[in-house]
Structure formats: structure tokens, C-alpha cells
Specification:
Length: 301
């Protein structure tokens, strides 16, 4: 089926970061944009940018909290009544939680699952009847480098993104007969407000302190130097929406490409040795001295 002249894109989490940039990027390309956000009082940044660019007329701001099924239903009904279709859904809304896995509270796990996985599932299920009826549609999930590569101290976040990857892979197969494409976007680290949350956690277990210090120092030292511009991700989203036959996966950013391919290419034992060395997660003896891995002790002999 030929796509309409002004396709309709619905984006979750448009108040900041990738969602905000995506709303602008799609509007520039003459999409009809439904920029949804859980709290519409946080629309000022988006509205100011759109107004300056003269793009406000192409964007409708609609409340949508991905953890609230009634708000998702209401948003999709609004879009249906107004435009009668959704051509592209960008499941972008997400949160991050930091901390070692043992430290991550049940509440944090629930919040992550409900927002980053079940939220995307409910939004998708609510939009799908329209896309199936259209016999055309594209669903893009903001996964992450962390959806394929385990990242200590972001373990709960990674676990849920890994689950999102499995969901999207299966969904892609199931929706192929309906001409609905499913795509995963896997950014590395980009400069958005999500980084204001992940390095904090409510409870800490002091036994981890000796690895927490060096690990956080390493992250904090390296991260600010390679946080990418979120507009790069936004323009990739538009490119995916307009591509004739989108792939399943799109890593974005040099860190994403490097780490995903390193994880894929190296056998686990080698990969683990490398990562533990870089992140200073080597075994320690009872006095707290780092024990060298077999290869390095052989080297010293
Ligand atoms: N930035 C990165 O380095 C990076 C890398 C890989 C993947 N990602 C993924 O990219 C996506 C967007 O994140 P971002 O980096 O752009 O961070 P961000 O600037 O913090 O944006 C997250 C957006 O999600 C919204 N949100 C949170 N909970 C929501 C809920 N229950 N219902 C609806 N909206 C909700 C936030 O709304 P409020 O403004 O109301 O909080 C905000 O608009 C996330 O899925 C994230 O996991 C980010």
C-alpha cells in the first residue's frame, strides 16, 4: 500500500531527549507528529523549539503515560478521531535506574519493567489494530547498546532492554504478514536527561564499595567525553521511518557499534576477561588484594 502524503507518527516521551528531537525531526520532514508526554506541562521546551522553527502547526501534543492503560487508550482514540491512522509508532519513553543488581529495589525493578517494557507493549497493542487495518505500519523501539551488552551498575536497565529486544524480534516475525515492520534502535551514550538519574540509587550495600568507587570514577571520567548529540538519533529515526525495507537493528554511535560487535565477536570467556579488567571487576583475595587472571600471572612467571 502506498504511504499517505503526510504520514502520522506517534512518539512517546516527547518532553525531552530523543523524543523531543524526534518530534522536531519528523515535523521538518512534513510528517504529522503526535508528540505524546506523560505530563503536558513539560511541553515548553518542545513548543519553543517548534515555534522558532515555524513547525508548530504540524505537531499535536497529547497526554500519554505509558504505565497507564487508560491514558494510552485515550491518546490513541484522539489520534484515530483526528487523523484516522498511525503510520509510525516510536516507542521511546523510558527511565534508567543505577546500582548493582543486588542493590536494586523491588520498586525500581517494577518501575523499569512497567515503563521500559510493559509500557511499550501496551502502547504497541493499543496501536496495532489500526496498523493491521491499514495493512501498513512501522513500529520503532528505543532499545539501547545495553539491550545487547551487559553493563555493570546498569544491570536492571540492561535486563529490561534485553527483554525488549526479545519482544521486538518476535513481534517483527509475527507482524510481517500484516506489512507492519518492527525495528530496534540501539543508541550508545547520548546527551539527554536520562543521565541525571542512573548514577544514583536508593540503597547501597557497603560490601560493593570497593568496586563501586573505581567503576563510577571510570564511568564519570569517560562518559562526558563521548556523549553524542541526540539529534543524530532523531535523524536516524526519520531515516528508518522513510526507508523502503528497514533492518531489524540500528546501533547508533561509535560506542554502540564497537561494544556490540566486540560482544558478538569474542567468545564469552575472552570478553569477560577483557571487561573485568577494564572495569576493575577482578577477583580479590581475603585481604582485598586483586588476584591476577591466569593469563597475567603466567605472564609474570
Ligand atoms: N540517552 C542515552 O544515552 C540513551 C541510550 C540508549 C537508549 N536510550 C533510550 O532512549 C529513550 C529515551 O530516553 P532519553 O535518553 O531521551 O531520556 P530522557 O531525556 O530522560 O527522555 C525520556 C522520556 O521518557 C519520558 N517518560 C518517562 N516515563 C514515562 C512514562 N511513564 N510515560 C510516558 N513518558 C515517560 C520522560 O518524560 P518526563 O519528562 O515526564 O520524565 C521523557 O520524555 C529511553 O527508552 C532510553 O532508555 C537512551
Amino acid at each position: 500500500m502506498t504511504p499517505p502524503r503526510n504520514p502520522v507518527v506517534c512518539i512517546t516521551g516527547s518532553s525531552s531527549g530523543f523524543g523531543l528531537e524526534a518530534a522536531i525531526a519528523f515535523a521538518r520532514r512534513e510528517y504529522t507528529v503526535v508528540a505524546t508526554m506523560r505530563d503536558v506541562s513539560r511541553q515548553t521546551a518542545l513548543v519553543n523549539r517548534l515555534t522558532t522553527l515555524g513547525l508548530m502547526s504540524r505537531v499535536l501534543i497529547v497526554p500519554l503515560d505509558v504505565t497507564d492503560a487508560a491514558s494510552i487508550r485515550a491518546a490513541v482514540d484522539t489520534i484515530d478521531q483526528r487523523y484516522g491512522r498511525i503510520d509510525v509508532l516510536v516507542n521511546n519513553a523510558g527511565i534508567a535506574v543505577g546500582g548493582f543488581l543486588e542493590e536494586t529495589s523491588d520498586d525500581a525493578w517494577h518501575q523499569l519493567l512497567e515503563t521500559n517494557l510493559l509500557g511499550a507493549v501496551t502502547v504497541t497493542n493499543t496501536v496495532l489494530p489500526m496498523m493491521r487495518a491499514q495493512q501498513q505500519g512501522r513500529i520503532i523501539f528505543l532499545s539501547s547498546l545495553g539491550g545487547l551488552v551487559p553493563t555493570p551498575f546498569l544491570g536492571a536497565y540492561c535486563t529490561v532492554k534485553f527483554a525488549l529486544e526479545g519482544y521486538a524480534e518476535t513481534l517483527r516475525l509475527e507482524l510481517a504478514p500484516f506489512h507492519v515492520d518492527v525495528v530496534l534502535v540501539e543508541p550508545g551514550a547520548f546527551q539527554t536527561s536520562i543521565w541525571q538519574t542512573p548514577m544514583t540509587n536508593e540503597r547501597t550495600i557497603s560490601a560493593y564499595d570497593h568496586i563501586r568507587g573505581p567503576l563510577l570514577a571510570l564511568y564519570q571520567e569517560s562518559l562526558p567525553n563521548h556523549l553524542g548529540n541526540p539529534r543524530i538519533v532523531a535523524s536516524r529515526l526519520v531515516a528508518i521511518a522513510t526507508s523502503r525495507r528497514p533492518r531489524l537493528r540500528y546501533p547508533v554511535g561509535r560506542d554502540a557499534w564497537q561494544e556490540i560487535y566486540l560482544r558478538k565477536l569474542l567468545p564469552w570467556r575472552l570478553y569477560e576477561r577483557l571487561i573485568r579488567k577494564i572495569l576493575k571487576l577482578e577477583r580479590q583475595d581475603s585481604e582485598g588484594n586483586r588476584r591476577h587472571s591466569r593469563s597475567s600471572s603466567v605472564g609474570r612467571r
